[in-house]
């Protein structure tokens, strides 16, 4: 597949917080032997810039904007088109450490044992347990990275910061929607999670996981300004509630066999989990070894 395959922006996370030093999941470092023509790449950059400029024009009536954040909250230090930042595929690179990923896979194992799953802002790996029976649809920033996700049945690309819709997907069509270490880049997170709510079946689950790692210049201002993980968790909890989720919990640790074997836990783990409409009791009952954060009556993590 050519490098100029359609790519639309949905950032993911590096393992360092320093500006410009992140390893990425949508366009990072090594291409695992894929050879690029630099003239072709330059042409692709120019074409992407033109496309991105066109996409930034105001759109009338395409998608109703929900106001969870102010305009200032969503400002990024890097104002260049996201398409350029994620142009080159970085297949095989992870943004969080082994311990974080082991906890995420175990969380999926317990809350999504099987079913029709949509992975937003995906890459070459969706972190689903290998033994699960899944029908997987992946969205991402870079088509080459999505093609490397061999478990996926369907793939599509879109810049969610320009168009946070899932218009290809019918209502109530997924058992689960997941997003790993990418929510910090979303400038219209409530619009996007409202779409996730729409495509979930009744009783379906949305899981958004994150750490304090980021591409600093691509994360939005309100995310960069949080001083600790508790602030990040409460921010994402607000996104969920404004998107229509009423039964919401937040986890900060998941017991895994790897951790009991002594793996260090370097990258802080957090996941916000919401269930659509009903059957929430069944979801929570089958959760084992998950540390849920305590909240007050207003739903704020203490």
TrEMBL record:
CDD domains: AdoMet_MTases. GO terms for molecular function: S-adenosylmethionine-dependent methyltransferase activity. Residues 160-208 form the Methyltransferase type domain. Pfam families: Methyltransf_11. Transmembrane segments: none annotated. Coiled coil: none annotated. Keywords: Methyltransferase, Transferase. GO terms for biological process: methylation. Signal peptide: none annotated. It comes from the Eukaryota. PANTHER family: OS04G0481300 PROTEIN, OSJNBB0011N17.9 PROTEIN. This is Methyltransferase type 11 domain-containing protein. It comes from Cladocopium goreaui. The lineage of its organism: Eukaryota, Sar, Alveolata, Dinophyceae, Suessiales.
């Amino acid at each position: 597949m050519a490098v100029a395959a359609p790519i639309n922006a949905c950032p993911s996370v590096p393992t360092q917080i320093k500006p410009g030093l992140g390893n990425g999941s949508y366009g990072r470092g090594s291409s695992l032997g894929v050879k690029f023509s630099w003239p072709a790449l330059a042409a692709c950059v120019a074409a992407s810039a033109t496309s991105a400029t066109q996409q930034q024009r105001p759109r009338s009536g395409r998608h109703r904007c929900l106001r969870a954040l102010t305009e200032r909250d969503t400002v990024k230090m890097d104002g260049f088109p996201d398409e350029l930042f994620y142009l080159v595929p970085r297949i095989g690179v992870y943004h969080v450490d082994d311990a974080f990923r082991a906890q995420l896979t175990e969380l999926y194992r317990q809350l999504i044992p099987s079913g029709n799953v949509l992975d937003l802002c995906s890459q070459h790996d969706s972190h689903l347990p290998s033994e699960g029976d899944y029908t997987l649809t992946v969205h991402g920033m870079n088509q080459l990275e999505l093609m490397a996700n061999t478990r996926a049945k369907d793939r599509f690309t879109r810049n969610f910061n320009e168009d946070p819709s899932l218009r290809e997907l019918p209502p109530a069509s997924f058992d689960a929607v997941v997003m790993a270490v990418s929510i910090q880049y979303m400038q219209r997170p409530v619009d996007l999670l409202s779409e996730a709510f729409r495509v979930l079946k009744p009783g379906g689950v949305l899981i958004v996981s994150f750490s304090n790692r980021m591409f600093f210049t691509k994360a939005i201002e309100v995310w960069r300004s949080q001083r600790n993980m508790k602030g990040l968790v409460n921010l994402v909890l607000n996104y969920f509630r404004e998107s229509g989720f009423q039964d919401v919990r937040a986890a900060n640790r998941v017991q895994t066999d790897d951790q009991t074997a002594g793996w260090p836990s370097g990258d802080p783990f957090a996941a916000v989990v919401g269930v659509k409409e009903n059957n929430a009791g069944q979801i929570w009952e089958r959760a084992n070894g998950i540390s849920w954060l305590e909240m007050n009556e207003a739903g704020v993590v203490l």
